[in-house]
C-alpha cells in the first residue's frame, strides 16, 4: 500500500488548512473600502431535492467544508484576505433546472461554478459556463462528450467514463485469470442516461479487445426504478458469471438486494463507476447483500493524512460518513481558491487560466497533483478497484494502491 508524505491539506486538530501555492501581494481586485475583505462568491449546482438528494447533499457539504477551511486560514491572501461565500443552486437532478440555476448564479456575480453529479445536467451547465466565460469545475460527472466540445472554461476532477469502463474490463479480466476462474460471459446492467451508456460502451469496447463474451445489456431509469429483481432475473437466465453495473447510489443498493433475492450464479458483481458499491454506507444500507461487491471508481486516498482528516472532519460536522464524492467537491473548491490566489484577480478569464494550471494534491487516489489537459480532463485522476470485505469497502487493485488482496470468486451477496 502506498503512502504519501507531501500533502496540501494538513490537519490542525480536526480543522484543515488548504491553500496550496499561496502568492503574496495585492492587486486592483483586493479588499473593499474600509479595509474589510470583500466576498467572492462560488456557485454550487447539486441535486439538493429529488431522488439524488442524498448524493447532492454530500457534494454540497464537501464544498461547504472547503470554503470554511479556506476562510478560516485567512481567505484569499493575494486578494487582501477576501472571503469565499457559497452560493447554492438546486438542480433537482434535471438538466433544464441545472441550466437555469447556472445562469442565475452567474447573474448573481459568482466567479466560478462547481457541480453537478449528473452528466446530463453538467452538459447543460458547461454550455452556459462557456457562453458566459465562467470557470466550471465538475466534481462528479463522467460523460466523455461533455469535454469533447472544445470548451475552454470547463474542467473535470474525476476520471472520465471511458476510463472507468476500460479499467473495469481490464481489472476483472486480470483478477479472474489470476484466480483460475476466468470470465466466461458478462452481463451489463446500467442506468439509461449518458453516464451509464458511456461506461457500458467503454467496457464493451475493451472487452472485445480482451476476448470477453458479452451477454445482455439491461437498462433502467434510475430516477424512477423501485425494484431490480426482474432485471437480475434476466442476468440469471443469461448464464453470465460476471455482472457489471453502472448506476447511482439508491439503485446500486436495489441491485445488491435483487442479487441476494434472485441468486444468479455469479463469480462477481463489478461496478463500473457505480455510485454505491465503494461507499462506506453501502454495507449498512444493503446489509449482507453487499458482501464481496467490487467497484471501479475514484476513491479517497485512505493512506493520506489529509484524507483521514477530511473524513474525521466530515463525520464531526455532519454526523455522517463522507463519500468520496464529497472530497471531489472539496477539491474542486480548493482548485478554484488556488486559482484565485495565483491569478490575484477575480477576472474570470484570468481565473480560468490559473485554474488550468492545476497543482493541488487531491484527497483521492491519483498519480500526482491535479493536472488538466487541453480539454480540461484531470489526467492524474485514477480509477481503482474496491471490494466490500468484512463489512467495509477497501482498495484491492492495482496492487500498488491496495490495502487488501481481492477475493475471487467473490460469491456476491452471500
Keywords:
2 domains; 7-stranded mixed beta sheet; 17% strand; 11 helices; 14 strands; alpha/beta; 5-stranded parallel beta sheet; disordered N terminus
Structure commentary:
With 414 residues, this protein is α/β, with parallel strands linked by helices. It folds into 2 domains: 10-158 and 301-355, 3-Layer(aba) Sandwich (Rossmann fold); 162-297 and 384-401, Response regulator (Rossmann fold, 3-Layer(aba) Sandwich). It is 37% helix and 17% strand. It contains 11 helices and 14 strands. It has helices at residues 53-72, 95-107, 119-131, 161-179, 194-210, 229-238, 249-262, 282-286, 305-318, 324-343, 348-355; strands at 10-12, 15-17, 39-46, 83-90, 112-115, 136-138, 154-156, 186-191, 214-220, 242-246, 268-272, 294-297, 384-389, 392-397. The strands form 3 sheets. A 7-stranded mixed beta sheet has the order 9-8-10-11-12-13-14, with helices on both faces. A hairpin with a 2-residue loop joins strand 13 (384-389) and strand 14. The radius of gyration is 21 Å and the shape is globular. Residues 1-36 have low confidence and may be disordered.
